[in-house]
């Protein structure tokens, strides 16, 4: 049995938008799985289906062994869901927030107090537990949210962009918590994020989704290796013979992939130190002058961009407008 | 069955939030206070008219049940607005992914709204008594407040229905204001039914508010008679049962759609 398993899962909205398109993923028990993709790629829709908030249009999804469409209640008893935006009740104290969550999750009265104390310890909020949550900082709120998701000791914990909008210190702290939770409770964690570094640090496996479709699934290391171990980036003085140069470089044995952006050329390779002299040789034979050159290691950012492209999303503008309207509404309220 | 504890969980949360909003409690009393003080004195000279249809007290005593109902109507019909907040700020999703049933969420909200409505109305009743409104027997306060609680449950149903189907605050307030004022006006809250033009009196008799106002007025003046009270209770109960049922159904259906 997998912690999460989907088979050709699809969701088509009334507007005709195919938000999720035959997504098949498998999440082993005890694994931290990263779900990555640009804005509007279908991450949120997938998570909403897996947490029983939306019904799939077609395909199957099982969470903790239960079908999300027909055994929603059993799924709900076995998951924790930490949403992207904070869901704490600001007028309630930290403890009351957890108390509410514990009641919602049917945690028996006799173990409720003990469990809440334990969670408060893990998220390091014991000393502020009796203050109204409105006085909490962004990081404390997020910790409280994560604590709420842990209360029922779920088999699968869904974390939707857990470090969005947090400062670097808090982000590192949250990563620590996620690791601690994972080690202590052996939970399976389904994580969505925009931060490649986060996925790289935490996840055993990641899937990259774009336009509703899974582009690739593998471990962060394997994904980076697939691009080659190293990247050579160089700039040339004129773009006239650019294509010729690129096709020559592509013929070289150690080269995995080449991409260009104006006069800047990026070469993914298995052996950068051997490649650099070869590049100079090719360039000089074509009478091209190299302005600058550097050698780096690929990051997950490179993996992400190589699978999803560099173009901004078509619906990016629309998305922003919606966000903006929402923000305005909050200000007015 | 976990329906009862689940309903209580939501009720508990709503009451916690109410208790923490002390300023709101007082602000919401200003409007009914103005009604009772300003309107009550403005129309004091209509006393002979009211006496002509058999009401022996002053005008303020006549309209006090109306203002209690005004408080009940508006507290409960506005009460569902936090459903919209809950959906926008994610509490709703938190509740929806927990094992709590959808109808428990709706019921918990409605119960909390009607209890809050009763608390607010009891303050207005206290204010009326302080202003010299005479009631037949102090013990009728309890059946009066019970009537308010039951009646408010029906109106909280309306509020939850509108909130669950609205996508924005603007829609919610538009619809609620459109519903609230006419329901209050088309009742004997401020003026006796017997003195209304017959078509208005007819419309008022279709309005459940009418029966709640009449019932409370009869209790306050100590003129309770079996048959009218039975009719009034039947209408109010029927209204409440229908509204609560529709609200649970609509709420369950709407929250399963993307917001």
TrEMBL record, chain A:
Signal peptide: none
Matches recorded under PANTHER family: LINEARMYCIN RESISTANCE ATP-BINDING PROTEIN LNRL
Family statement: Belongs to the ABC transporter superfamily. Drug exporter-1 (DrugE1) (TC 3.A.1.105) family.
Keyword ATP-binding assigned: yes
One Pfam family, short name: DrrA1-3_C
Protein name per its UniProtKB record: ABC transporter, ATPase component
GO (cellular component) term, any one: plasma membrane
Localisation: Cell membrane
Location, primary (coarse class): membrane
Domain ABC transporter span(s) in chain numbering: 4-236
InterPro entries attached to this UniProt entry: AAA+_ATPase, ABC_transporter-like_ATP-bd, ABC_transporter-like_CS, DrrA, DrrA1/2-like_C, P-loop_NTPase
Gene Ontology MF terms in the entry: ATP binding; ATP hydrolysis activity
Tree of life domain: Archaea
Keyword ATP-binding: yes
Source species: Nitrosotalea devaniterrae
One example of a Gene Ontology biological process annotation: doxorubicin transport
Membrane protein topology class: Peripheral membrane protein
Gene3D superfamilies the record matches: P-loop containing nucleotide triphosphate hydrolases (3.40.50.300)
Keyword entries, A-Z: ATP-binding, Nucleotide-binding, Transport
UniProtKB/TrEMBL annotation, chain B:
Signal peptide: none
Stated name of the protein: ABC transporter, permease component
Pfam families, per the entry: ABC2_membrane
Transmembrane residue ranges: 25-44, 64-85, 106-133, 139-164, 171-193, 199-217, 229-251
Highest taxon of the lineage: Archaea
UniProt keyword Transmembrane present: yes
Any one of the GO CC terms: ATP-binding cassette (ABC) transporter complex
Residues of the ABC transmembrane type-2 domain: 23-254
Molecular-function GO term, any one: ABC-type transporter activity
First-listed, main subcellular location of the protein, grouped into a coarse class: membrane
Subcellular location field: Membrane
Membrane topology category: Multi-pass membrane protein
